[in-house]
């Protein structure tokens, strides 16, 4: 691994270790519930990883796998039952849901104090107002990785490409909370390469393989690539491989620090989910934020 690579796998492993140590010191075992509707193969892998890692850090894990044809009312009922279960600390509804289900309606049912994905209106409001609450996992992972590379982020110009509710928008608020000067770019942004060249920290959360070119990056900048894109690759047994939004070969020599895909933000998302579950377990019992889990 080159010296300017930010090793998301290693940082995530360290965070999971901190989560495991915290759990060992608690008098309760936190429980994460994952709801998966349908049989999307990428979601199956992702949910399987969550269950594997939650058990590895000493957490209880509950899975609710529902068939693709489950009605919206039944998914809502599943979420309500998990809300009512006092042993469940965190609830994650894997997205996307099948097309006949309104995901906003389902997400709105999640008890905000168990909302480990940080997607409910209450969680978004708490983040926006700077109040304590559960923050979305992927953007939290981006902040942790940027701090890993740069230390204090105060005063840095952070440009985020993407404004989704899951990633771009909460990332903007989290970097603002770190005292960055934040620019949010999107599909209607004029002169995107010029905007990006102003960034000390460039976060790309778009979903377009190799979109961000080497000459979009200021020399020495920290590049955080959130994109997960599967592209054809005849040299692989599977016939495909994962790439980010950033043209890695071009960006790597210019960047001061850069996250690879895979092995960058992805592993951090799951580690932050486990962290959120512990934070939820503590907050629900009025316990203080454990040492070692603050960012
Ligand atoms: N590593 C991880 O843990 C995770 C990775 N991801 C990955 O991150 C990527 C983004 O996910 P998500 O935020 O959910 O995606 P969305 O599709 O919800 O959002 C994409 C954003 O990119 C913007 N965009 C689209 N095309 C362009 C363009 N040509 N130039 C500039 N901006 C553009 C869109 O702008 P507009 O709003 O104007 O349409 C939108 O704001 C995906 O690849 C996804 O797989 C997602 C979650 C977790
Ligand atoms: N409610 C909800 N919350 C999410 O946070 C959520 C979601 N739904 N739906 C899908 C997206 C996507 N996402 C990823 C998480 C980890 C990896 C990850 O671990 N990636 C590995 C590679 C995995 C592989 O090889 O397939 C890596 O980048 O190294 C990827 C993608 C979370 N999402």
From TrEMBL:
Residues 136-283 form the Tetrahydrofolate dehydrogenase/cyclohydrolase NAD(P)-binding domain. Keywords: Amino-acid biosynthesis, Histidine biosynthesis, Hydrolase, Methionine biosynthesis, Multifunctional enzyme, NADP, One-carbon metabolism, Oxidoreductase, Purine biosynthesis. InterPro entries: Aminoacid_DH-like_N_sf (IPR046346), NAD(P)-bd_dom_sf (IPR036291), THF_DH/CycHdrlase (IPR000672), THF_DH/CycHdrlase_cat_dom (IPR020630), THF_DH/CycHdrlase_CS (IPR020867), THF_DH/CycHdrlase_NAD-bd_dom (IPR020631). Residues 6-117 form the Tetrahydrofolate dehydrogenase/cyclohydrolase catalytic domain. The gene is folD. It holds the Pfam family THF_DHG_CYH. This is Bifunctional protein FolD. Belongs to the tetrahydrofolate dehydrogenase/cyclohydrolase family. Catalyzes the oxidation of 5,10-methylenetetrahydrofolate to 5,10-methenyltetrahydrofolate and then the hydrolysis of 5,10-methenyltetrahydrofolate to 10-formyltetrahydrofolate. Homodimer. Pathway: One-carbon metabolism; tetrahydrofolate interconversion. NADP(+) binds at residues 162-164, 228. It catalyses: (6R)-5,10-methylene-5,6,7,8-tetrahydrofolate + NADP(+) = (6R)-5,10-methenyltetrahydrofolate + NADPH; (6R)-5,10-methenyltetrahydrofolate + H2O = (6R)-10-formyltetrahydrofolate + H(+). Its EC number is 1.5.1.5, 3.5.4.9. It comes from the Bacteria.
